[in-house]
Protein backbone atom coordinates (compact mmCIF):
# COMPACT_ATOMS: atom_id res chain seq x y z
CA UNK A 1 0.00 0.00 0.00
CA UNK A 2 1.48 3.31 -1.08
CA UNK A 3 0.29 6.31 0.91
CA UNK A 4 0.51 9.92 -0.22
CA UNK A 5 2.31 12.52 1.88
CA UNK A 6 -0.99 13.79 3.31
CA UNK A 7 -2.18 10.27 4.12
CA UNK A 8 1.08 9.54 5.94
CA UNK A 9 0.73 12.82 7.84
CA UNK A 10 -2.85 11.96 8.87
CA UNK A 11 -1.71 8.47 9.87
CA UNK A 12 1.01 9.95 12.07
CA UNK A 13 -1.30 12.57 13.62
CA UNK A 14 -4.54 10.59 13.96
CA UNK A 15 -3.42 6.97 14.11
CA UNK A 16 -5.41 5.85 11.06
CA UNK A 17 -6.32 7.13 7.60
CA UNK A 18 -9.00 6.13 5.09
CA UNK A 19 -7.65 4.44 1.96
CA UNK A 20 -10.99 4.11 0.18
CA UNK A 21 -13.84 1.67 -0.19
CA UNK A 22 -13.25 -1.98 -1.07
CA UNK A 23 -15.50 -4.96 -1.62
CA UNK A 24 -14.59 -8.62 -1.14
CA UNK A 25 -16.35 -11.65 -2.64
CA UNK A 26 -19.52 -12.39 -0.72
CA UNK A 27 -19.96 -8.84 0.60
CA UNK A 28 -23.12 -6.97 -0.32
CA UNK A 29 -21.59 -3.50 -0.47
CA UNK A 30 -18.20 -1.77 -0.34
CA UNK A 31 -16.76 -1.01 3.11
CA UNK A 32 -14.36 1.82 3.95
CA UNK A 33 -10.85 0.54 4.71
CA UNK A 34 -8.20 2.25 6.83
CA UNK A 35 -4.42 2.14 7.06
CA UNK A 36 -3.09 2.00 10.61
CA UNK A 37 0.07 0.93 12.40
CA UNK A 38 0.34 -2.48 14.06
CA UNK A 39 3.08 -2.78 16.68
CA UNK A 40 4.18 -6.12 15.25
CA UNK A 41 3.59 -5.77 11.48
CA UNK A 42 3.94 -2.07 10.71
CA UNK A 43 1.36 -0.35 8.50
CA UNK A 44 -1.60 -2.59 7.60
CA UNK A 45 -5.03 -2.08 6.02
CA UNK A 46 -8.37 -3.33 7.34
CA UNK A 47 -11.94 -2.17 7.97
CA UNK A 48 -13.48 -1.17 11.31
CA UNK A 49 -15.01 -4.06 13.25
CA UNK A 50 -18.02 -4.11 15.56
CA UNK A 51 -20.12 -1.29 16.95
CA UNK A 52 -17.05 0.28 18.58
CA UNK A 53 -15.31 0.54 15.20
CA UNK A 54 -12.08 -1.08 16.36
CA UNK A 55 -9.25 -1.72 13.91
CA UNK A 56 -7.67 -5.17 14.08
CA UNK A 57 -4.49 -6.21 12.33
CA UNK A 58 -5.43 -8.97 9.84
CA UNK A 59 -1.93 -10.48 10.10
CA UNK A 60 -2.15 -10.78 13.90
CA UNK A 61 -5.62 -12.30 13.49
CA UNK A 62 -4.24 -14.96 11.10
CA UNK A 63 -1.45 -15.84 13.57
CA UNK A 64 -3.89 -16.56 16.42
Question: Your description of this structure?
Answer:
The protein has 64 residues and is α+β, with helices and mostly antiparallel strands. The protein has one domain (5-63). Helices cover 25% and strands 39% of the residues. The protein contains 2 helices and 4 strands; from the N terminus they run αββββα. A 4-stranded antiparallel sheet has the order 1-2-3-4. The longest helix has 10 residues, at 5-14.
Concise structural overview:
This protein is α+β, with helices and mostly antiparallel strands.
Q: How are the elements arranged and paired?
A:
Blueprint: H1 5-14, E1 16-22, E2 31-38, E3 42-49, E4 54-55, H2 58-63
Antiparallel strand pairs: 1-2, 2-3, 3-4
Instruction: Please report the number of helical segments.
Output: 2
Average predicted confidence as pLDDT: 93
Residues in helix, %: 25-40%
Determine the structural class based on helices, strands and strand pairing.
Answer: alpha+beta
Shape designation: globular
Question: Can you write the helix and strand succession as a string?
Answer: HEEEEH
Q: Could you tell me the radius of gyration in angstroms?
A: 12 Å
